[in-house]
Amino acid sequence: MTMDVRPAAVDAESLRSQISDKYSEVAKDPAKGFHFHTGRPLARMVGYPDADVDALPQGTVESFVGTGNPFSFGSMKPGETVLDVGCGAGFDSLIAARQVGRTGRVIAVDMTEAMREKAAAGAREAGLANVEVRDGLAEDLPVDDESIDVVISNGVINLCPDKMAVMKEINRVLRPAGRLQIADIIVHKEVPQSAKDDIDLWSG
Amino acid sequence: MLQHSGFAGVRWGNQIDVFSGSKHESSAASFETRGITFAALKA
């Protein structure tokens, strides 16, 4: 298992642009077919209970992308404030919103406009008024210091060139003793620098 | 990285071959890429 925390030598703006283009396609045309799994089959693969998925709007489910189930470590508690970093179509945000209830809230942050629109539409369709969707980057979260009880994220940090900056930003917004529950990817073989610097491999 | 960014009590979940059967399978397999979950507390 290798943990290299140096920022990758890719142009961050170009990388974000390519990733945003890719995920806009997932939001607008989820049946197109991608190099990664999506939707209900992926949700089953990573262990979401069917009941949680069935309770979500169809559009939210079909544009789901992730690498695991952040709720496998436990549900959110009623009244908690949850931040979903890279919320995508809002799949995890809406699950969290049901768990925290009316006394809690979910802040859903994503850099891709089409995904933000889909997340907001899903929250409206589900009748979840406790979801607020914001534009932002994982490295520069539009969230106050120490204002969050739980940070969740699913398959996002691997797409960020400066992972240490993301983790420090998550630490900044969490309250003391706040927790993170994250799904992402790990590699067991050393990735050569040439691959780390290849922007096409990042965006899939 | 988690400790260096101010977290403690790290727990790791199961690893899942989330790219199996996808078009990305071959490149993911070449680096033994797996989906993983982890949890931690702000120290």
Protein architecture, described:
The complex is a heterodimer of chains A (204) and B (43). Chain A has nine helices and five strands. By secondary structure, chain A is α/β, with parallel strands linked by helices. In chain A, α1 (12-28) packs across α6. The longest helix of chain A has 17 residues, at 12-28. Chain A is globular. The mean pLDDT of chain A is 93. Chain B is built from one helix and two strands; from the N terminus they run βαβ. In chain B, 14% of the residues lie in helices and 37% in strands. By secondary structure, chain B is mainly beta. The two termini of chain B are 13 Å apart. Classes of the chains: A alpha/beta (204), B mainly beta (43). Chains A and B meet through α7 and β5 of A and β2 of B. β5 (174-187) of chain A pairs antiparallel with β2 (33-42) of chain B, so a sheet runs across the interface.
* Content of β-strand of chain B: 35-45%
What is the tally of beta strands of chain B?
2
Strand content of chain A: 15-25%
Estimate the helix proportion of chain A, in percent.
25-40%
Keywords, please?
heterodimer; A: alpha/beta; five-stranded parallel sheet; 5 strands; B: 43 residues; 37% strand; elongated
Brief sketch in words of this structure:
Chain A is an alpha/beta fold and about 200 residues long. Chain A has helices at about 10-30, 40-45, 50-55, 60, 90-100, 115-125, 165-175, 195, 200-204, and strands at about 80-85, 105-110, 130-135, 150-155, 175-185.
